[in-house]
Design goal:
Layout lengths: L12 H4 L6 H10 L10 H13 L4 H13 L1
Helix pairs in contact: 2-4
Length: 73
Amino acid sequence: MKREPQLNLDRLVRSATAGSAGEPYCSLILDSLGIGDFSSWSLDQINSFWMDAERSDLTVAQFIEHKRREVRS
């Protein structure tokens, strides 16, 4: 049985999501937002979301919480 790698939620989101190695973190962030369907998001919204992550000084956990509040507003 293959075990999923443990993700470090205290890691800065900008480094955790960088490059193809960041795919598990990107998936975790999107899954954690609780949005079942992102098809209503425009390409500009998606790009803005990931640009926020790229420039952020927040940890992965803090970024998720910040974006949850933002999405619910």
